[in-house]
Every structure is written in C-alpha cells, then in structure tokens.
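Dear support,

I submitted the protein below through the web form. The confirmation email said the job was done, but the results page showed an empty box. After a refresh the structure appeared. I'm attaching both so you can tell me whether what I see now is the final result or a partial one.
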Amino acid sequence: MAAEGNGSKETRSRIIDVPIESLPFVDEHMIEIAAKPDEVWDALIRSVSVMGESRKGAPISKALGCEETQAEGATGEIGSKIPGFVVTRSVKPAALALMGQHRFSQYALIFTILEKPSGLILLSAQTRAVFPGRKGRLYRGLVIGTHGHVIVTTSLLRQVRRRAERIHARPARA
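What the results page shows now:
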C-alpha cells in the first residue's frame, strides 16, 4: 500500500509495517521431508536465495512495479530482500515470512517448519494477499485463477525437499 506522492522512498509506506495476518488467506501447500529441522531451514534459505538470483526475478519485479527488484542482504535475515520480497519474519528453524507489494497486489509467503511425531518435517507455504481494484482482480485471475501460483509454490517446496534430503543423506563430518 504505497502512499500517494511521487514514489520516492520518503513518501512510500513500507510493507514491513503491515501485519502479515492482516492480509487475506489465499492458500497453503505442504510437503513432508525426511530431514532435520535445521537441514530443512538451510535448504529453504538456499532455495529462496536461488529464487532471488534468477535472471527472471529482477525484470519481472521491475515490470510489476515492486520496490524490491534486486537481492540485498543475507537471505533469511529480517530486512534482506530478493526481487519482489523483503524478509519480515525469520525464526530459525521454524518460520520464514516474505512480504511484497506491487501495483496489483500486496502479498506474503509464510513458510513454517514443524516436526511431526513420526520424525518427518512438515514444510508449509501459506500465501496471503490482497488484490485491490479492478486491475488487482484481473491480476489475481492471471496468477491464482490459472494455478500458476500453485505450480510455482509446489515446485519451490519440492526443491526444498530435494535439497534438505540431500543434506540429510550426507555422511557426518568428523
């Protein structure tokens, strides 16, 4: 939710000041992972970092009018950025929240890591977003209605699982 004005940093409100829970729930996806919580955390941070290093991230975030168009800071630390997102919550190895906004939406992607009684880890990715106005509704239809968001989110979860399980399978160093 940008403040009215010339778009300078002084006149724009910061997304980090908006409570995550104030954004409407969109969906949640989960995956079980055979690894330890710290291994899943490390794999999540690496996967989010790689997402931020993608050649597509900066151009897409610029085209949408995101303030965060470049990776900045250590991924996983509060205030660090990847194209389209800023890290607003980071509790190792339990929760990572990314928030962002552009001209069509204000959104959050919240990852939680829970250990199940079976010893498996449940990694969830919850999306919250608001799509204001007519253009926002159209954008929601393009991103959510076509299941493009589901494909990207579940792909990211599977990527984290592959990384975490590879880390878990490595022999311990002496």
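Response: this is the final, complete result; the empty box was a page-load delay. The first helix runs from residue 37 to 53.
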